[in-house]
Write a structure and sequence with these properties.
The chain is of the alpha/beta class. It is built from 14 helices and 8 strands.
Length: about 375
């Protein structure tokens, strides 16, 4: 019996790791997962090195999968990839290989004996706080891998349905029925509690020209949110018109999802008519249920080509419908920023949470804001 439980635990662990790989962009097909299980049958599953190489040799289809595999292995098993001596071995922490520190960027940069691990860890931490608009192409590629591993939490709401529980209010019907089965004597009280259900999240991403340096990162965050809860997450792009890209964002591979979204968006890097576009969203989608009781996240710098009175009126409408309104402005992360644009001045009175969205650390903070909202 114990042996069967151990085998089942190994299978469940491998299946969970394969799901993580697929989220990271590695096509870990069922036949490759089966090959890994066969390989582990001849190895010591408690040896991290054996598990690492068994998965790498069976689940990766080519050189392009190796970096994503390393990142997923480190994230899933909560540790660094095993240090197995091999000729021509890859760097130990590939996550930072694409974003090396420049000379003099840390206290230990001039120390030739400083450990590579410390330098690489410092590089990753620096990258997490760097402004997305200032990254090099290599650093942007590294950031895409981090987005592939991002798992935004889902806000929950109490539903009307209740389920049996060890604590909570007494359920009279179940208590009486249980007493009748025992001769009419109440031997134990039956309790129940409200069942939590996911709350809808709606993301409105500004793809106008002023938001071009941040549009890719914001859409990757939206893809991660849709990947986490595809049934309760909606994504729209806003600029000079409103475009629903939820279906494109449901593609598993983030690069394919963004490419499909780019083909569907007719006003990429155009102007901004926030008031008109927000009115179109509320008239067609929000008033009919999409925004009701939802956490609505508006990602924009607040530049408005039209009048701000219309934007202010539509933000009031949105606040009445939504459970919470979160405004993400990448410029808020800059030192000395003040929301002085007309669009921000009109929107802020109806905003519950005003956050920045300029770096990976800011996106991680945003996931917590959405969950707590």
């Amino acid at each position: 019996m114990a042996e069967e439980v151990a085998v089942r635990d190994v299978v469940d662990t491998v299946l969970g790791f394969a799901r993580t790989l697929r989220h990271a962009g590695v096509a870990a097909s069922p036949d490759r997962v089966e090959s890994m299980l066969v390989a582990l049958g001849s190895l010591d599953v408690l040896d991290p090195g054996a598990v690492y190489w068994a998965g790498r040799l069976t689940l990766c289809a080519g050189p392009d999968d190796l970096d994503r595999y390393d990142a997923a292995f480190s994230a899933y098993f909560a540790g660094e990839r095993p240090r197995v001596p091999r000729p021509n071995a890859r760097p130990e922490l590939h996550l930072t290989a694409a974003a090396p520190l420049e000379p003099g960027s840390s206290d230990g940069a001039d120390d030739p004996e400083a450990p590579d691990l410390a330098v690489q860890a410092s590089a990753e931490e620096v990258l997490r706080h760097r402004d997305v608009a200032e990254l090099t192409p290599a650093e942007r590629e590294h950031l895409r891998r981090l987005f592939a591993l991002l798992a935004p939490a889902t806000p929950m709401r109490p539903s009307r349905r209740r389920r049996p529980s060890a604590q909570g209010p007494v359920h009279p019907g179940r208590t009486v029925r249980r007493a009748l089965r025992s001769g009419g004597e109440v031997t134990r009280l039956a309790h129940h509690r409200r069942q939590a259900r996911p709350r809808r999240v709606v993301l409105l991403v500004d793809v106008s020209g002023s938001m071009a340096p941040y549009a890719d990162a914001l859409l990757r965050f939206a893809h991660a949110a849709v990947r986490a809860r595809p049934a309760t997450t909606e994504v729209f792009t806003i600029g000079t018109r409103l475009t629903r890209v939820t279906r494109e964002m449901r593609l598993r591979d983030p690069d394919r999802a963004l490419a499909a979204s780019g083909s569907a968006i007719p006003d990429w890097s155009g102007g901004t008519r926030l008031g008109e576009v927000l009115k179109a969203f509320l008239d067609r989608w929000g008033q009919r249920g999409t925004a009701r009781g939802a956490v609505v996240v508006v990602c924009s710098d607040g530049w408005e080509r039209g009048g701000t009175d219309l934007l202010a009126a539509q933000m009031v409408r949105l606040r009445r419908l939504a459970h919470a309104v979160v405004w993400v402005n990448p410029h808020k992360g800059r030192t000395g920023y003040e929301p002085l644009t007309g669009g921000m001045q009109a929107a802020l009175p109806s905003v519950d949470h005003f956050v920045s969205g300029h770096s990976m650390a800011a996106f991680e903070e945003l996931t917590g804001v959405i969950q707590r909202a």
